């Protein structure tokens, strides 16, 4: 059957021509440099920053200090991630109280919940500021840091769910770098990585950065052996003073069995102390690993236009391939219950295989920013244009219940037959958006104001793999404004209020009668009131903030005919606070959030609180550095997450839990080298608890907290 497609009038030609145009420009500008005189190298290195900053470039508010920005945003540097033993995005949940798990397990890609909303892996992630799909395993070895923007993001992104945005920062050339890192844990996971960089040329006009990593993947859960690898290169060329051409590309691959969760046993919540967290419910003779491969890169021309004006043009592309496979536990057919396991601990096993999935994202962004003054008012203004295309090709999948296909949460069940017939139709998506954004930050005395608007033209189409439907091209235009005002209530202290909108794309879930059908664009709104401050003295540095937010977002539900439609809305009201700093040998970081999340005005779903959203969170860390005879830093981390509803009817909750992590970092001089030793113990007291309770495909899953894990690593800087 012929599949209708998006009109061929797209930005394919500019996508191809832009890198060629930039390359041609790189050849022409050196000629101009020779005509104008000697080439001088601008400052393009990475500025030394704190390990954790309360601002992020993804906020789009320029270089103002954190306390002057009317948003809640964080940047976690590479050192902060290493010291916290963050090896994947899911580990970031220990660093900030607004962030928690959404469906994080061994062998699969990462999900985050921010301010009670699960981030959409197709829309809420950026890499170097450009849209990417996070429906894959994303390596951190070549990342200089992770940025987290919290809240409705209409001015930062044309399409995203309202929780926030995650942006990955890629390591760039910054001078001489010679680093090798080795890591191993008591489960047998072992990794090796290298980070090499330098500048070359008569005037150091060339920069090079190479990252490579290999890892043997293993966990305390049975039969989870796997492997991953990464190769990445970043280069830059100073063309003429103030003009830099940057390019980078990475290729990564990971293969490991994914681990499904436990569940309710009938109407009972099993005790996390009574289950073995090492049991693998995906352990069958025919079980195959989930596999993820990806190649992603960008090319960018950055220009200093003089008098405080800057511009950049960036092209990015991401190509993903994956095989998503599992002996998947789901429901209790014998009791006609499909959202939990049987009361005796048995469950139905499905042969799930979605092979050769392809996802492609291409983006082109041009932006300019600078400052002007009108009378007594200073304006920091910016404009950007973003064109992005996303296509997915997922093919037919298998989701079959083999004969006699039952397992048990004890893990003691016989080998089951397989049924890999691909009879389940996935849905392909083809999307294209053009976005124009404008912003102005005004300063007049102790007052500041911000206004911004993003206009988005969105085209999308959905096609079911068995050709049961193919929607017409849907074209919508939407505006998402944002505004804030702030006042300096004290030195380096600002109170602010902000308001903004966001828009998101949603499709009917795959287990509904209209699975894969596009829903109307959903608009979310957020109001935030806060105060932020900073203290810098010769003996101490501190950053702190407190805020209250209100987010309203449309929701979906299924009617009596099992048709998914937009029905009611969610309202999340929360209070956040954070405080971090350093005084002498002491360092500390803390954040907390109390959240009231409700669903309202639904005709077909219970007007209850959402599942898997903790009502309170607290993350605290403290450190002390001994300087003699060699620098040694001891750090302790406390993670507290409150109760979460397990079922949509709000009859059962998993209890609150606490986890304590300890780490030690020692720095040792060794000839012309520096060795940084790290030793970490996660879950020191081997606490047994249900870490999270996500609902996936209308099924309740329970994930236990990982048992005590000891990790040791050595970082050698030559």
Write a structural description.
There is one protein chain. This protein has 718 residues and is mainly β. It contains 2 helices and 40 strands. The chain has a 22-stranded antiparallel β-barrel. The longest helix has 25 residues, at 12-36.
Separation of termini? 61 Å
CA-atom Rg in angstroms: 26 Å
Oligomeric organization of the protein chains = single chain
- Bin the strand percentage: over 45%
Count of DSSP E strands? 40
Poorly predicted ranges? 1-50
Report helical residue fraction.
under 10%
| Mean of residue pLDDT values | 91
Q: What best-fitting shape do the alpha-carbon axes yield? A: globular
Largest sheet: 22 strands, antiparallel, barrel
Q: Please state the structural category.
A: mainly beta
Q: Number of helical segments? A: 2
Brief summary:
This protein has 718 residues and is mainly β. It has two helices and 40 strands.
Question: Which descriptors apply to this entry?
Answer:
globular; six-stranded mixed β-sheet; mainly beta; 718 residues; disordered N terminus; 55% strand; single chain
SSE blueprint:
Blueprint: H1 12-36, E1 52-53, E2 72-77, H2 78-83, E3 99-101, E4 112-114, E5 117-118, E6 125-127, E7 130-131, E8 143-150, E9 164-170, E10 177-185, E11 190-200, E12 206-217, E13 226-240, E14 243-256, E15 290-306, E16 309-329, E17 346-374, E18 377-393, E19 396-400, E20 406-408, E21 424-425, E22 427-444, E23 447-464, E24 474-490, E25 493-504, E26 522-536, E27 540-558, E28 564-583, E29 586-600, E30 616-626, E31 632-641, E32 644-645, E33 653-654, E34 657-670, E35 673-682, E36 690-692, E37 695-696, E38 699-700, E39 703-704, E40 709-717
């Amino acid at each position: 059957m012929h599949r209708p497609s998006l009109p061929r009038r797209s930005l394919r030609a500019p996508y191809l021509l832009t890198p060629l145009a930039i390359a041609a420009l790189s050849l022409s500008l050196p000629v101009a440099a020779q005509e104008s005189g000697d080439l001088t190298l601008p400052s393009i290195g990475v500025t030394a920053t704190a390990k954790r900053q309360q601002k992020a470039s993804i906020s789009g508010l320029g270089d103002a200090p954190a306390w002057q920005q009317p948003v809640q945003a964080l940047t976690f540097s590479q050192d902060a991630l290493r010291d916290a033993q963050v090896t994947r995005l899911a580990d970031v949940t220990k660093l900030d109280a607004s962030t928690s798990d959404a469906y994080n397990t061994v062998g699969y890609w990462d999900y985050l919940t921010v301010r009670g909303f699960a981030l959409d892996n197709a829309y809420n992630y950026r890499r170097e500021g450009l849209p990417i799909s996070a429906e894959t395993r994303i390596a951190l070895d070549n990342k200089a840091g992770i940025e987290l923007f919290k809240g409705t993001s209409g001015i930062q992104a044309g399409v995203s769910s309202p929780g926030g945005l995650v942006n990955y920062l890629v390591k760039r050339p910054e001078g001489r770098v010679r680093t090798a890192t080795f890591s191993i844990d008591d489960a047998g996971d072992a990794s090796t990585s290298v980070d090499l960089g330098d500048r070359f040329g008569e005037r150091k006009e060339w920069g090079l950065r190479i990252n490579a990593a290999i890892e043997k993947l293993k966990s305390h859960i049975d039969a989870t052996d796997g492997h991953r690898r990464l190769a990445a290169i970043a280069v830059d060329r100073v063309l003429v003073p103030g003009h830099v051409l940057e390019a980078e590309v990475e290729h990564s691959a990971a293969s490991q069995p994914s681990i499904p969760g436990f569940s309710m046993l009938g109407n009972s919540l099993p005790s996390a102390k009574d289950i073995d967290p090492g049991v693998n419910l995906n352990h069958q003779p025919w079980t195959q690993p989930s596999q993820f491969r990806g190649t992603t890169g960008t090319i960018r021309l950055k220009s200093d236009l003089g008098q405080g004006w800057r511009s950049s043009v960036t092209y990015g592309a991401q190509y993903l391939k994956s095989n998503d496979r599992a002996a998947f536990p789901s429901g209790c057919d014998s009791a006609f219950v499909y959202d939990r396991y049987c009361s005796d601990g048995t469950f139905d096993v499905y042969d799930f295989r979605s092979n050769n999935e392809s996802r492609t994202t291409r983006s082109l962004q041009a932006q300019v920013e600078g400052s002007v003054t009108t009378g007594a008012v200073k304006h920091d203004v910016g404009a950007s244009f973003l064109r992005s295309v996303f296509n997915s090709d997922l093919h037919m999948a298998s989701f079959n219940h083999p004969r006699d296909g039952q397992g048990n949460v004890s893990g003691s069940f016989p080998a089951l037959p397989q049924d890999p017939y691909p009879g389940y139709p996935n849905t392909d998506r083809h999307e294209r958006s053009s976005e124009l954004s404008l912003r102005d930050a005004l300063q007049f005395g102790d007052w500041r104001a911000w206004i911004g608007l993003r206009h988005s033209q969105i085209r999308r189409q959905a096609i079911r793999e068995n050709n049961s439907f193919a929607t017409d091209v849907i074209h919508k235009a939407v505006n998402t404004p944002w505004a804030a005002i702030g006042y300096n209530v004290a030195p380096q202290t600002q109170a602010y209020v902000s308001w903004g909108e966001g828009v998101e794309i949603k499709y009917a879930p795959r287990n509904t009668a209209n699975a894969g059908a596009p829903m109307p664009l959903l608009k979310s709104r957020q109001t935030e009131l806060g105060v932020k401050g900073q203290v810098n003295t010769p003996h101490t540095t501190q950053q702190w903030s407190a805020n209250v937010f209100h987010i309203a977002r449309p929701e979906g539900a299924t009617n009596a005919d099992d048709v998914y439609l937009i029905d009611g809305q969610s309202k999340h009201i929360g209070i956040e606070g954070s405080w971090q700093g350093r005084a002498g040998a002491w360092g500390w970081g803390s954040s907390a959030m109390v959240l009231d999340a409700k669903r309202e005005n639904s005709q077909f779903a219970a007007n209850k609180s959402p599942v898997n959203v903790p009502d309170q969170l607290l993350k605290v860390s403290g450190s002390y550095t001994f300087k003699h005879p060699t620098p040694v830093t001891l750090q302790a981390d406390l993670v507290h997450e409150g109760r979460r509803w397990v079922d949509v009817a709000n009859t059962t909750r998993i209890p609150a839990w606490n986890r304590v992590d300890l780490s030690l970092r020692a720095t040792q001089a060794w000839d012309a080298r520096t060795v940084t030793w790290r030793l970490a113990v996660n879950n020191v007291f081997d606490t047994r608890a249900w870490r999270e309770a996500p609902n996936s495909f209308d099924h309740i899953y329970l994930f236990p907290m990982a048992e005590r894990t000891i990790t040791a690593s050595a970082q050698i800087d030559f």
